[in-house]
Sequence to fold (1147 residues):
Amino acid sequence: MTTSYAIEVKDLYKSFGDLQAVRGAQFQAHTGEVLSLLGPNGAGKSTAISILCGLLEPTRGDALIMGHSILSEPEAAKACLGYVPQDIALYPDLSAHENLVFWGKMYGLRGAALKQRVAEVLEIIGLSERQKDRIGKFSGGMKRRVNIGAALLHKPQVIIMDEPTVGIDPQSRRHILDAVKELNRQGMTVLYTTHYMEEAAELSDHIAIMDQGQVIAYGTHDELIRLVGEQTRIDLKINVESANVLPAWQKVEGVFTASAQDSLVTVLVDDSNRVLPRLFDAATQSGARILSVDIQEPDLEAVFLHLTGRALRD
Amino acid sequence: MKIIDLALKDLLRSLRSMFLVGMSLLAPLLITALIFFAFGGLGSDEGSSDLPSVTVGIVNLDQPATGAAVAIGDSLYGMFTDPSVSSWITTVKYVDETTARAALDKQEVGALVIVPENFSAAILSGKAGQPIRLLQDPTLTISPMVIQNMITSFLDGITGGGVAIQVVMESQSARGLTLDASGITNLISRYQAWYTAFQRALFHDPQQAALNVRTPAAEASSESSGMQIFSMVMAGQMIFFAFYTGAYAMMSILTEQEEGTLARLFTTPTDRTQILAGKFLAVLLAVLIQGVVLLIAGRLAFNSYWGQPISMLMALLAQVVGATGLGVLLMSLVKTSKQAGPILGGGLSAVGMLSGLFTVAVPNMPVFMDTLALFTPQGWALRAWRLAINGSSASELLVPLAANLAIGLVMFAIGAALFRRRFA
Amino acid sequence: MRIIDIALKDLSQIFRDPKLLIFFVAMPVAFTFFMGFALRGTAEPQDPRLALGWVDQDSGGLLSQQLYTTLSESQSVRLVEIQAADADKKVRGGDVAGVLIVPTGFSAGALAGQPLQLTLVTDSFTTTGQSLQQMLRTPITQLFSSLEIAQIDAELAAAQAPFASDAERQAAIQATFQKAQQTWTEASASGSLLVVEKAMSEAPNAPLGGNAYNQTSPGILVQFAIFQMFTAAIILVQERKDRCLQRLMTTAMRPAELVAGHWLAMFVSVLFQVAILVIFGQLALKVNYFHSPLGTLLVTIGLCLWIASMGLLIGVLAKSEEQAVLFSLVAMFVFTSLGGAWFPLESSGKLFNFVGHLTPAAWAMDGFQNILVRGLGASSTIQPALILTGYALVFFALGVWFFRRRGIQ
Fold:
């Protein structure tokens, strides 16, 4: 079946008792593109991913992987899919080679084809020389490479990566981002979940922003930025609790939204040059002193703030 | 095919687990080796067990007058110091009871024999006197019993002489005949000669003994009874650790869940039923391998006797099915590997205890314990091995095999259903 | 003070684990009860008489009838008449302890001076079989003794006045034989020439001091005290794995204090368990540990010192929780089997007995049994307690040495 969408999510719902983790999520990934699913912790990204991978059943709705329904054709859908979980999911007492052989078999590879593909993947992840060592003895970065490698064995058309850079050092993070680009360059459709907007910005052809179980925005990076128009973001650090000054700043002319976390206030304005002096005046009147000012051009953080009134970062 | 891949993967991990290898193979072999070491000689075809060394203290207060015909205390002492028993009896003479008791308390001797004053004189006069006292260390049973038997046999000879004199004299008198002193002496000599020869034959010459002892299983099996008991002890250990192996191997499903690899498996185009089936197969193989290795090791290292081939295979099958079934059921009832720990350690040990796995060699077990064992798969497995080791034919093993198959399969079915419900 | 802090931390980790109740208390109590039940047949036999199968192929014979009468009145055996063809099966199946077979022509042959052998079918490797042999020797000896006396008497009579016929001679022998049997019975009833006493003033005259738990209670106590040390050893393993050990070493804590603190926690936890089991044994099982409270305390402290030191060594050597459990189990199997906790060392061979007493568990068992079975006082426990302390020092030294060698990795 030919389709221009590698992934299509249609009106997906998932409830855990009274909690609706996913509420009518809807997005799609074109074949051969990188789609990022961006959102804060608890947005429902992992739940949505789990449904796509067949780990959870949706309460309602469906999704298609390369045209195969995850409900009516789950095995066909899984055969097209490679999944890289957030945590290392490998057998620590088996070697890298043994892990890859096993996972290859689980994806239906056998005999000489399996042997050859395992060797290829080991080359791709740069661990050919350590293939006989047990995973338990590997460093964190090496484990992550095998973790990714296990998802590539059957040359999937779609690869889903669930927050693969959480908690790792910048160098390893760089490697992973480069690897994603390379996989995409080879023709793989990548669904990449993250709560780091810069990763989404760097990697993605399209971005779906998710919050509280819903996709609240979808588009290219530029399209999303345009949602906030010409809004400029100003981050101000003040010397008092923000509760003292926030109400005053929200009333300042030219301010679209203002949100605060402790002593850091983020304000979206139309023209930073005109609004900034007003902000200083309001601060003075409220008895606050501004310690630092950081002006930023519109970005996804701003988009999220605009759409939800909350910061993307925790 | 994927079922086999999954099973082989789990089996490989099991074999690499030092803990599981230790518990499945090393522990039962170690315990068996210790018991074999403790009771070595059970395998002897000569039928004699290795007597423990016996140390006896003698206090001989019986000092008959010089030239007296009989000095029983000295004779008793002579019996214990005779060269024929010197290799296994050590005799120590004490001058008084106080010194001797102190030695007994310090466990320098296992028993004390105190021959009272005028013992010989009382015997010869036919009047009741003080008896010989045997004081034994209450923590010992075997060596005091041996000493007691020796003294009893010795005293029987003395009593017998008295009976002979009394009966013959009365009988001759009834015929109007008399027995003079030389006649009595000849009578005693003749009787003692007969008695000595009789006792010697009884203890040392099975061909001439009045009582010939033979073991019952001599026709059914070529193995000695001692080896059969030892094999039963090893069977008890094998069964206990087989059931442990089954449950521990099945625990892999919980550890995979915690490792995240189970979820990953579910994202592959592999049916969940296949995944579960692979796990069950791995458990079965692990228990089977364990059983086979222990049977072979037992035979090679300890010359254990496992019965006729068909009976042995039936007993093994009962054990494997029971262990697999119980392992699947137990692990289906817990949610985490941490919860599984007490189930494995505590639960299986308790059930093993109730099944009689630890008391196979204890005689005079209460009957209700045999009945209790019938409620457990381990108990039925033990029953099957008992029959096999005792040389029973295959037909006699059908009942315990069928019972274990039934129990094992029912447990397996329940456990499998619970797992399917959890992971479906 | 830091030593106490470490110990208290360890103890809080140990005692908050729900497994504690199972391994510390429930399992040893259950095992003690069970094994005591199992051994009650040995210590307090309800009917001590052994079932003896009787096959009389000499029906009507004088000697066989006499033997039957004697054994029927025996306090040691209980006759069960069976068929000859069933003899082996009955013994194999455990229905009877043995079968005595009186062959055809037994009485006639014996009276004619050509006695046939009686056959006892029994498992001579079991204590039951051996006991049965001992029990039968006396009545059989008396039977043949009576026959010999009767024949001597007949010879003496014939020397003076020959019998008119062989029938007369046989009648005389039979009469004398019966007289001799009766005399034997009277001699046995009139008082034994041998009195057997246990060298302990209070215990009843029965094996194990009349209480099967005298063996199982200290045996299970020693076994589980060794086993449970894995709970404390795991604390050390986890501390290393969680990298808390490394963190501790960045504080002012000295390594010696750390080792001492962990050891103290192990000692207290073992002492706690042993105390519970001693009290349980005393109150519920009537095992008289308090016959000598000081003696019991000395043995207990020696035992706990040794086990704590061994636990320390295991905690230092093990690289994972599973290894700690495995090492503890191996230690338990080796020391309890060699040490006489499972079966009295007396019943094993000389070499095993010797090797067993090289292990600390044997000395702990000796110490407890001096009090429980032999009724001795505290002085009898000094040697075992000192030996246990010596072993404790050896294991502790090994533990410290390996700890220093391994470092914080």
Observations:
- The longest helix of chain C spans residues 127-160.
- Chain C has two domains: 2-42+208-406, 49-189.
- DSSP finds 16 helices and five strands in chain C.
- The CA atoms of residues 234 and 321 of chain C lie 6 Å apart.
